[in-house]
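Q: What residues go here?
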């Protein structure tokens, strides 16, 4: 299917006409396999202010997505992120299950988690630690199965296990004139 004539081509095949999005959400109980369906109507409104130009996406290997949805859990994650980013204006932009990115369902062994991608944004530049963790030298080390070059691995511990080789940093494509 193609774009809506005269409309926004959307992202990933979604076409938002107007400001309402209707979804049918299917959920299942992991223990009983009971399923439930519910229709969800979302009103699309622009975010207050602009999207932060600096964004980092972290893969948290020791969590399931529902564990990072509560505000308190996201706040703990932001505090840990502030330790490596060296910024105090951080906020969570997105939380996505690794299963939605092609991750594998973990074996039903206690303690195994699906993994969660957490995208965090800031209006300030990345710390040297984050920049070095995503550098070409670090990517090369990751391709050899080694840890990337960075001095900030343990600031997330013991709450979060970050898979540093999956770190993605997005810098602004153009900076506004001063």
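A:
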């Amino acid at each position: 299917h193609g774009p809506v004539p005269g409309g926004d081509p959307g992202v990933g095949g979604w076409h938002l006409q107007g400001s309402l999005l209707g979804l049918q959400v299917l959920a299942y109980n992991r223990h009983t396999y009971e399923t439930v369906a519910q229709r969800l109507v979302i009103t699309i409104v622009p975010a207050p202010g602009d999207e932060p130009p600096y964004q980092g996406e972290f893969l948290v290997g020791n969590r399931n997505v529902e564990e990072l949805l509560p505000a308190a859990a996201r706040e703990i994650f932001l505090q840990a992120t502030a330790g490596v980013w060296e910024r105090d204006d951080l906020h969570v932009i997105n939380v996505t299950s690794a299963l939605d990115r092609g991750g594998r369902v973990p074996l039903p062994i206690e303690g195994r988690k699906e993994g969660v991608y957490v995208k965090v944004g800031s209006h300030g530049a990345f710390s040297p630690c984050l920049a070095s963790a995503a550098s070409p030298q670090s990517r090369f080390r990751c391709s050899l199965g080694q840890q990337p070059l960075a001095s900030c691995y343990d600031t997330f511990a013991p709450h979060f296990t970050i898979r540093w080789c999956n770190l993605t940093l997005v810098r602004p494509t153009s900076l506004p004139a001063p």
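A: Context that may help when evaluating the design: Residues 1-18 have pLDDT under 50 and may be disordered. The longest strand covers residues 20-28.
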